[in-house]
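Hey, I'm writing a tutorial for new members on how sequence and structure tokens pair up, and I'd like a real worked example in the thread rather than a made-up one. If someone can provide the structure for the chain below, I'll link this post from the tutorial.
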Amino acid sequence: MRHSDDVSIRKFREPDLCELVRLISETIGISYAEVYPPRAVQFFNDFHSEKKIADRSKTGTTLVVEEDGELVATGSLVDDEILAVFVHPRLQRGGRGKALMNALENEARASGVTEIGLSISLPSKRFYESLGIRS
């Protein structure tokens, strides 16, 4: 799928919260239901609750990919760990995740982080392997 001309990666802002919760919830609902039982899917939804997303953005850096005014991807850097990387399923394999990971790695380097930890879920394993990351 082709990128829109109006794509930007920027820091999360508080007014993004509801849309970000919806993006993550939809992505979990679609991508995780194929590989995890319902209780695990619920666990992941709880782990990415509105409060936890807001907390991550305060204790670390949360980036969003905005395309034509819509949030389509997100990821966070907290301390020395990249986590909560999500790209909406209808837009996966379009380079957004790779661009987001590069931006998060740049944030880490700018913060003086020399070794980055990464939270990998089963649905994202192939994506990270395509970037040369082994779990």
